[in-house]
C-alpha cells in the first residue's frame, strides 16, 4: 500500500504540467476512462483521423428528483484533469499490455506526446442553475484526445451535479434560516463519494459537514455533535475523576462540577412548572453529559434520545446546561435522533422556555435543537407541515447517496467535426442531439426572472436587450414564443483556451461558487422551484438553428420503404 502510494506520488509529480493543481482524487488520471475510448482513439489514429477538429457537447436530458432545475457542479475538477492530462510511462506500458498486440507501436508514441494544450473548453460557471439540452460544457480539440475525455468528464460532472442539486432541494424545503449539516460520510458510496458529497452539498447550500478530510481539503466549515456510544459508554458517576471546572471568565473554579449538576437536576425536579414531567432520569446518561460538558464547556451539545427524550435526556441536558450557566457558559443545545422529531422538538422548546422564565436564564428558550435520523425532502416537508422547533438538520444517507434518484444522465455527444455539423438521431425525440458549435444565452424578463435559455449557431448575432427574438422549441414545431429580453446573459465562458489565445476564466474558490449557486437559485421564478408540479423552464433554439437542425435531420434520416 505504501509502495503504491509512493508510486502514485511519483506519477502525480511526473504529470504536473500546468499551473493548475491536479484533480483532488489521485485516481483521476487519463486511464480513468472506458476501454472503448482507447480503441476508438487507436482507430482514429490508424485511420489518420486523430487530429480532425471535433466539438462535443456535454449535457443532460432531464432534471433530477422530479424537479425543473439542476445545479451544475464538477467543473473545477474537470479543468484540473485537463490541465494535467498527460500519460506516464507506467500508464503507457499498461495500455500496451491491455490493447490487442496488433496495435502498432507508433500509437503509443502518439499517446506519449498528447496533452490538452490544443483542447478548448467553454462551460457554464460552476454552481449555475442549468436546464436540460443546454450544453453545460463544449469541448473542442483533436478528436482522439477529446474522445478520451468523455468518460472522466462525465464521471466528474454527473454525481457532482446530482448531489449539489439534491442539497439545493433539501435547502429549499428546510428554508433559509435553518442550519443544514451534511452527515453522510459513513453512508456515502466509498471515499470519493463521501468527499464529493461534502464538497458539492456545501456548494448546493449546506452550511457545514462532519467530514474532517473535506474540511481540510476544501475549507468547508466542520460541525458535529456526539453519538449514542458516548452516552452508553458511561455506567456511573464515579467514572468522572476530574470534576473541577473554571468559570468561563476564569475568575473562579468550581471544584465539583458533578455535584453542581446534581443540585441543578434536583432544582428542576422540584420546579413548579416542570414538576411531574419527569421523575428519575437515567444517571449514566447524566454522567455522560456531565463528562462531555467538562470536556467542552463552551461547546456543549448533547444527544438526548439514548434512553428517553422527555423523561431523561432533556432534563439531564438542562441540569448540565444550568450548571454551566452558573459558571458563565452557554450550552449550545440538543440533538434528537429518533422518534417523532416534530413533537419532541416542540416539547423541548416548551421545556427550554419554562426554564428561561422560571430560572431567569436569558435566551435559554432559544437553545438550539438539532434533528437527524433518515431525513430527506419528504420528512423535512412533513415536519414543516406539522410545525416543529428544529433549528438545525443533520442529513446523511438520503442526501449523499441521492436515494431518490441515483444518477443524472449527463451525456457527451459529437456536434461538429472539421466544421461539419453532426447530429445523433433517435426514435426518442428527446434523445436527438442538437448539432453545431453553439452559443448559449439566458434571457431575463421584466420582473427580473430568467425567462428562457436560447442556443444559437456560433456565428449568429447575439440576442439584444429590447429586441424581439423568436425562441423555438428545438424539436416541437408548434412550441415557440417571442421574447423581448430586459437582460441578456451569455452563459458559456472559456475555462480552457487551448491555442485560441482567448483569456482563461479563473476558477473561483468554493465559497464563491456556493454564493453564486444560492444567488442563482434565489433568482428563479418560484413556480419553477416548487416541489409539486413545477413549471418547466423553457429551453429553446433560434429560428436559424431550428431550421438547420431539421434540415440536417431530414438529410441524415433514411427514408423508409413500405411493402
Ligand atoms: N414528525 C414526523 N413526521 C414525519 N416523519 C418523521 C417525523 N419524525 C420523524 N420522522 C421520520 O420518521 C422516520 C422514523 O424512522 P424510524 O422508525 O427508523 O426511527 P426511530 O425508530 O424513531 O429511530 P431509531 O430506529 O433510529 O432509533 C425517520 O425517517 C424520521 O426522519
Ligand atoms: O440518518 P442519516 O440521515 O443517515 O444521518 C446520519 C445518521 O448517522 C448517525 O447514526 P447512525 O445512522 O450511524 O446510527 P443510528 O441509525 O442508530 O442513529 C446519526 O445519528 C444519524 O442518525
Ligand atoms: O456529528 C454528528 O452528530 C454526526 C456525524 C455523523 C453522522 N451522524 C451524526
Ligand atoms: Mg440512523
UniProtKB/TrEMBL annotation:
Functional pathway: Cofactor biosynthesis; NAD(+) biosynthesis; nicotinate D-ribonucleotide from nicotinate: step 1/1
Catalytic activity: 5-phospho-alpha-D-ribose 1-diphosphate + nicotinate + ATP + H2O = nicotinate beta-D-ribonucleotide + ADP + phosphate + diphosphate
Post-translational modification note: Transiently phosphorylated on a His residue during the reaction cycle. Phosphorylation strongly increases the affinity for substrates and increases the rate of nicotinate D-ribonucleotide production. Dephosphorylation regenerates the low-affinity form of the enzyme, leading to product release.
Assigned EC number: 6.3.4.21
Function: Catalyzes the first step in the biosynthesis of NAD from nicotinic acid, the ATP-dependent synthesis of beta-nicotinate D-ribonucleotide from nicotinate and 5-phospho-D-ribose 1-phosphate. Helps prevent cellular oxidative stress via its role in NAD biosynthesis.
Domain Nicotinate phosphoribosyltransferase C-terminal span(s) in chain numbering: 437-548
Stretches assigned to the Nicotinate/nicotinamide phosphoribosyltransferase domain: 332-431
GO process annotations (BP): NAD+ biosynthetic process via the salvage pathway
Protein name per UniProt: Nicotinate phosphoribosyltransferase
GO cellular component: cytosol
Species: Dorcoceras hygrometricum
Cross-referenced NCBIfam families: NAPRTase_put
The keyword NAD is annotated on this UniProt entry: no
Keyword Nucleus listed: no
Domain Nicotinate phosphoribosyltransferase N-terminal: 31-158
Domain of life: Eukaryota
Keyword annotations of the record: Glycosyltransferase, Ligase, Magnesium, Manganese, Metal-binding, Phosphoprotein, Pyridine nucleotide biosynthesis, Transferase
Pfam families reported for this sequence: NAPRTase (PF04095), NAPRTase_C (PF17956), NAPRTase_N (PF17767)
Family the UniProt entry places it in: Belongs to the NAPRTase family.
Region (Disordered): 1-22
CDD domains the UniProt entry points to: NAPRTase_A (cd01570)
Gene3D superfamilies per UniProt: Aldolase class I, nicotinate phosphoribosyltransferase
Database matches in InterPro entries: Aldolase_TIM, N/Namide_PRibTrfase, NAPRTase_C, NAPRTase_N, Nic_PRibTrfase-Fam, Nic_PRibTrfase_pncB, Nicotinate_pribotase-like_C
Molecular functions per Gene Ontology: glycosyltransferase activity; metal ion binding; nicotinate phosphoribosyltransferase activity
Listed cofactors: Mg(2+); Mn(2+)
Amino acid at each position: 500500500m505504501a509502495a503504491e502510494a509512493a508510486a502514485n506520488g511519483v506519477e502525480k509529480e511526473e504529470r504536473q504540467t500546468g499551473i493548475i493543481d491536479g484533480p483532488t482524487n489521485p485516481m483521476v488520471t487519463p486511464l480513468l476512462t472506458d476501454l472503448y475510448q482507447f480503441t476508438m482513439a487507436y482507430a482514429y489514429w490508424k485511420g489518420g483521423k486523430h487530429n480532425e477538429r471535433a466539438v462535443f457537447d456535454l449535457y443532460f436530458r432531464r432534471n433530477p428528483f422530479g424537479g425543473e432545475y439542476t445545479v451544475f457542479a464538477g467543473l473545477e475538477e474537470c479543468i484540473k484533469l485537463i490541465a494535467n492530462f498527460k500519460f506516464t510511462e507506467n500508464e503507457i506500458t499498461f495500455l500496451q499490455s491491455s490493447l490487442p498486440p496488433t496495435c502498432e507501436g507508433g500509437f503509443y508514441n502518439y499517446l506519449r506526446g498528447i496533452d490538452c494544450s490544443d483542447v478548448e473548453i467553454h462551460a457554464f460557471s460552476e454552481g449555475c442553475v442549468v436546464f436540460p439540452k443546454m450544453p453545460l460544457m463544449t469541448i473542442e480539440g483533436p478528436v482522439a484526445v477529446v474522445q478520451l475525455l468523455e468518460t472522466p468528464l462525465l464521471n466528474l460532472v454527473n454525481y457532482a451535479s446530482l448531489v449539489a442539486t439534491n442539497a439545493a432541494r433539501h435547502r429549499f424545503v428546510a428554508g433559509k434560516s435553518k442550519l443544514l449539516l451534511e452527515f453522510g460520510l459513513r453512508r456515502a458510496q466509498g471515499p470519493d463519494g463521501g468527499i464529493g458529497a461534502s464538497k458539492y452539498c456545501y456548494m448546493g447550500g449546506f452550511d457545514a459537514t462532519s467530514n474532517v478530510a473535506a474540511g481540510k481539503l476544501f475549507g468547508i466549515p466542520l460541525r458535529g455533535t456526539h453519538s449514542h456510544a458516548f452516552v452508553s459508554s458511561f455506567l456511573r458517576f464515579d467514572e468522572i475523576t476530574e470534576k473541577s471546572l473554571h468559570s468561563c471568565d476564569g475568575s473562579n473554579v468550581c471544584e465539583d462540577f458533578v455535584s453542581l449538576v446534581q443540585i441543578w437536576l434536583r432544582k428542576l425536579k422540584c420546579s413548579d412548572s416542570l414538576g411531574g414531567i419527569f421523575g428519575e432520569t437515567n444517571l449514566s446518561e447524566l454522567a455522560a453529559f456531565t463528562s462531555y460538558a467538562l470536556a467542552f464547556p463552551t461547546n456543549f451539545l448533547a444527544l438526548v434520545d439514548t434512553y428517553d427524550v422527555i423523561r431523561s435526556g432533556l432534563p439531564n441536558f438542562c441540569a448540565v446546561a444550568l450548571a454551566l450557566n452558573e459558571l458563565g457558559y452557554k450550552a449550545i443545545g440538543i440533538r434528537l435522533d429518533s422518534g417523532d422529531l416534530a413533537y419532541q422538538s416542540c416539547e423541548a422548546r416548551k421545556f427550554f422556555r419554562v426554564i428561561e422564565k422560571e430560572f431567569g436564564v436569558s435566551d435559554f428558550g432559544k437553545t438550539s435543537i438539532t434533528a437527524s435520523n433518515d431525513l430527506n425532502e419528504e420528512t423535512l416537508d412533513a415536519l414543516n407541515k406539522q410545525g416543529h422547533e428544529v433549528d438545525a438538520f443533520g442529513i446523511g444517507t438520503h442526501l449523499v447517496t441521492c436515494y431518490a434518484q441515483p444518477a443524472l444522465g449527463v451525456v457527451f455527444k459529437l456536434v461538429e467535426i472539421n466544421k461539419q455539423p453532426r447530429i445523433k438521431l433517435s426514435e426518442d425525440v428527446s434523445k436527438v442531439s442538437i448539432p453545431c458549435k453553439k452559443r448559449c444565452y439566458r434571457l431575463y424578463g421584466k420582473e427580473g426572472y430568467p425567462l428562457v435559455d436560447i442556443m444559437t449557431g456560433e456565428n449568429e448575432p447575439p440576442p439584444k436587450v429590447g429586441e424581439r427574438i423568436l425562441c423555438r422549441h428545438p424539436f416541437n414545431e408548434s412550441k415557440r414564443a417571442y421574447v423581448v429580453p430586459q437582460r441578456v446573459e451569455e452563459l458559456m465562458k472559456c475555462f480552457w483556451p487551448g491555442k485560441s489565445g482567448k483569456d482563461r476564466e479563473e476558477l473561483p474558490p468554493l465559497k464563491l461558487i456556493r454564493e453564486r449557486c444560492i444567488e442563482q437559485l434565489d433568482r428563479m421564478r418560484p413556480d419553477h422551484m416548487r416541489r409539486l408540479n413545477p413549471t418547466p423552464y423553457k429551453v429553446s433554439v433560434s429560428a436559424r438553428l431550428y431550421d438547420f437542425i431539421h434540415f440536417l435531420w431530414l438529410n441524415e434520416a433514411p427514408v423508409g420503404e413500405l411493402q
